[in-house]
């Protein structure tokens, strides 16, 4: 894409030159991008204003299911750390950020596992029908764009 003049991929030191970025821990970010790639046909992911101030060991983003019509309407806040992934009680429009998870939510080590237990049957089915080439292509795009660090 760079050769076609679509150069929106940040260089490795771009966070030093751009204000308002929040570089994330690279191992956590890479693992999260893999999970997002697997779930890319089952969920919509969206930027959150809370991500910039979350620090390097926290990723805050919005997500909603794209395949289940009952869950499709509302975005929920997702909080990912190196240890766990949770859906938060607060929403994007809340006055204060609170890391308290939704009542009754168990421990899930990452976004993929969260989908396997918390997601709908349709979301799980779509996830297991993903083609390897599509997952790797989406992952490569996410890895190059570094959306969690630059949004």
Automatic annotation (TrEMBL):
Ranges of residues in domain CASC1 C-terminal: 5-95
Top-level division of the source organism's lineage: Eukaryota
GO MF assignments: beta-tubulin binding; microtubule binding
Organism name: Euphydryas editha
InterPro entries on file: CASC1_C, IC97/Dnai7-like
Protein name: CASC1 C-terminal domain-containing protein
GO CC terms: axoneme
């Amino acid at each position: 894409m760079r050769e076609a003049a679509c150069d929106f991929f940040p260089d490795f030191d771009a966070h030093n030159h751009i204000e308002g970025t929040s570089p994330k821990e690279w191992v956590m970010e890479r693992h999260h991008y893999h999970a997002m790639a697997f779930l890319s046909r089952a969920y919509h992911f969206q930027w959150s204003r809370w991500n910039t101030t979350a620090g390097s060991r926290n990723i805050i983003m919005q997500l909603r299911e794209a395949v289940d019509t009952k869950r499709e309407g509302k975005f929920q806040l997702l909080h990912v750390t190196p240890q766990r992934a949770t859906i938060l009680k607060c929403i994007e429009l809340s006055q204060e950020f609170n890391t308290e998870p939704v009542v009754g939510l168990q421990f899930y080590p990452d976004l993929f596992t969260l989908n396997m237990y918390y997601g709908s049957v349709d979301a799980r089915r779509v996830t297991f029908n993903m083609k390897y080439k599509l997952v790797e292509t989406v992952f490569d795009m996410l890895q190059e764009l570094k959306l969690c660090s630059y949004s």
